[in-house]
Amino acid sequence: YGKTTAIITNGWCLTEEYLTPFKGWLDWVTISLDSAIPEVHAKLGRGFRNGEKPLTNEHYLRASEAISKAGMKLKISTVVTKLNKDEDMSEFIRDLNPCRWKIFQCLYIEGENDGRVDEFLITKDELQEFLKRHEKLTNDGIKMYASTEDTKNGYACITPAGCFLDDGENIHKYSRPILEVGVDEAWKDIDYKPENFRARGGMYDWKATQGCSMGGVSSRDIEDIGIAPITTEKKEKNQTRKVSTRDKQQPAVPWWNASAIFIPAVLFVALLVSIIIGRL
């Protein structure tokens, strides 16, 4: 149907048997993976359920192979906290061989992690040290992107309840229901900045049939996380100039201001889920 589909998971059910029915239907699989040390990963609440033992690194490697066999692309999402900020995950990430590695700075979000996040927060400098330690992975073709406190308001999505959701100033802001007030009115309820979306690397062609290359951006699909690629200081300055030039060439209008796009998109997702369930 010309759409790009993706899931985000802790990886528990990612086996070849599980993924086979979704072959041809699912383009991307994102695994939340915060550490190459299973004990640290478990302390961060990842990779286990119902009190069972945490998943092993071997499980994630088998999952990576299963994703590849199913013709899907792999992303890894990592939240950098005080527990893993000094870790070197290079070898493990290289073995997993994701197309993209998304790295989050642990941040305080009002109403989400109040009173529980202080022991995990890190500074900008600590995040930069983590990024620098891993930037050699770009030589292996792994695209690394970081989401920090400087890239807020560069992300928006539609919730299952049919509301827009942004990632604003330390709080997640929800719009009124789209189907009740319309796209334009609901869009006014959130604070989304197209320049932050572009600056964080949100524009790229992520069709599963076109490999992992970032060259020749032609799609405007909205990505889930990330900013500009990790590069040297000189390249970062060049990247900034390119973004500024592109900004001047494009009209400053919201990306999602057309009802003809969003309401059919919601209906399409419902249709797709029905078809997949029918096939199962």
Automatic annotation (TrEMBL):
Cofactor dependency: [4Fe-4S] cluster
Keyword Iron-sulfur: yes
TM regions (residue ranges): 255-277
InterPro entries: Aldolase_TIM, RSAD2/Viperin_antiviral, rSAM_sf
The keyword Iron-sulfur is assigned to this record: yes
Gene3D superfamilies per UniProt: Aldolase class I
Keywords in alphabetical order: 4Fe-4S, Iron, Iron-sulfur, Membrane, Metal-binding, Transmembrane, Transmembrane helix
GO-annotated molecular function: 4 iron, 4 sulfur cluster binding
Protein name listed in UniProt: Radical SAM core domain-containing protein
